[in-house]
Amino acid sequence: MKRHIITVGILIGLVILVVVAVEVANVRLFVRIAINLCIMLVLVLGLQVFMGNSGILSFAHIGFMGVGAYTSAMLTIPLQMRGMALPDLYPVLANVLLSPYITIIMGGLVAAAVAAAISYPLMRLSDAAAVITSFALLVVLHTIMLHWSEVTNGPRTLFGIPKVTNLYLAATVAAVAIVAALAFKESRLGILVRATRDDEVAAAAMGANIPNLRWIAFIISALFAGIGGALWGHFITSFSPKAFYLKETFVILGMLVIGGPRTVTGAVFGVFIVTIAFEALRALEGMINQAQIFSEQVAGVTEIVLALAMIAVLVFRPGGLLTTREIGDMIVHGRNKRGEK
Amino acid sequence: MVGLIQFIIDFLSLGGAYALMALGLVIVYGILKLVNFAYGELIMVAGYTLYLVGGTGMPWIFMAIIAILMSVLFGILTDYVAFRPVRAKSVTAVLITSFAFSTLLQNGALLFISPRPRNIPLPDIFTETIEIAGVITPIRNLLTIATAVISLSLFTWLMRRTVIGIAMRAAATHFTMARMLGVPANLIITSAFAISGLLAGIVSMFWLGRIGAVTPGIGLEPLLIAFIATVIGGMRSLQGAVLGGFLLAFIDTGLNYTLPQDLLKFRDAFTFSLVILILLWRPEGLLKGPASGQRT
Hints:
Number of helices of chain A: 16
Structural class of chain B: mainly alpha
Strand content of chain A: under 5%
Number of domains of chain B: 1
Largest sheet of chain B: 2 strands, antiparallel
Distance between the termini of chain A: 24 Å
CATH architecture of chain B: Orthogonal Bundle
CATH topology of chain B: ABC transporter involved in vitamin B12 uptake, BtuC
Distance between the termini of chain B: 53 Å
Number of strands of chain A: 0
Largest interface: A-B, 43 and 44 residues
Shape of chain A: globular
Shape of chain B: globular
Structural class of chain A: mainly alpha
Number of strands of chain B: 4
Oligomer: heterodimer
Order of helices and strands of chain A: HHHHHHHHHHHHHHHH
Strand order of the largest sheet of chain B: 1-4
Number of domains of chain A: 1
């Protein structure tokens, strides 16, 4: 138990550190980066819950983020703007206005419900077939977001979403996500899911109901994604379906893979490392563009570096930076070792 | 009658292109049991090569050959960068590296060329039309059909009659056993990637010929098409990929002719739901591949 408390303490400590540092520095750009980091934490931890514990790569995660963002947006856009932002919204929903704090949770629940409804049969598959179906699921969700104009305003930008996500809200949700991800991993359910990852046949022989276990992990993962998406929607205040597709999938996948998908610590560290690297590169890109060294705008450097980093990590350290042990385990283990001498 | 001929020409030319795309994806999958997410980018590479050599004033056919060779080269490069270093480790790792490689190529094009569409040189014959039995159709469509027929026959000959083809089929059936009998694994895998690049290069000429320009994101649609076609037809069977390509083209063309406009925009959602359903109902696809399949 002690090691889990240490892990949670250190990881939440990191988040608090970011909040304090940003408050002290009081620079607008840093506040934005910090909020973004906290939202990414929620999303990547959600992906870790499914992918890390079950060992199955999922591309659909960002799709559920979109479900959460649109659910929350649809119910919170002020009524006087509703007619402009969503002209074709169904009459039943047209006059419903809820507090964003409620709809953020609803966003998560709707995403989880969608996941629960469609994903059960998919959980029977593993390896390449599972990955292709999750990829197909992302395309289906994206196509629906792109064309269901009644709810999403089609491919056009949806605007007028109230800005409620501030640093404290995002940091609190991120802290809750850290605790929840670790609690899931160490729960009976989490241990069973991890057993199916390490040896499918043996786990099934011991009586683990594999599709069921993966299904529950997938639903919880979608819950995280929905909440993260709703938070993001109330932070960015206007977005289009383009925001929930392959590019974003690549970023959260990169964070998780570099940090180490099997550990919560790895997921958190991955988010921190990639965010810091991204912002540094983006600043560099901005400087190059400002100085007009090249005739055209420089774009895409950040993605290239992330892609190279991902390939390098998978070649040289396939389990990510933190492969199997949480930071608390490492500290407790290290101390015991020293005690023995 | 005129409508029917129109439909058949549309269907065959689309089906030929789809079948070649699917074949390029499945030849790698058959041996490695791994999906190459960077496959679509080979078409992008061929397109940008055409654009870059476009100013040289060479005859078009030479430019096309250079573009196809570049596509082959990048196919081999995919193997060396994304597959070989992690092949033995885990399925997930390879899927992620190939996804990363795809992003790498796309953003490379974004950075070094331009995010905006670039026009590619095309021969005049691509824009001309011809009248057959009262139907006006672009010559391009007929060229696509002819190329598909020639490529598919050559491919069949290669797989059935040559040593490398037989070795590749052996590797797809039982990789470990084939290696024990002296089939060099790395060579076979690299040749599969080269053939994959060749097919992507050939099909890219017609695919880009329809669009007339190339953008960094152009590879996504062919990748998705190849995905659907192989899943429908059978992930591990070469004949299945061809069948899947034609079937998908039939569904697409059929929906284009019959579905009302406001449902047509959901076509992708329909076809991808079909993919999920087929994988669930018949994970092997319509045609089963060789009996066994242990990955190294």
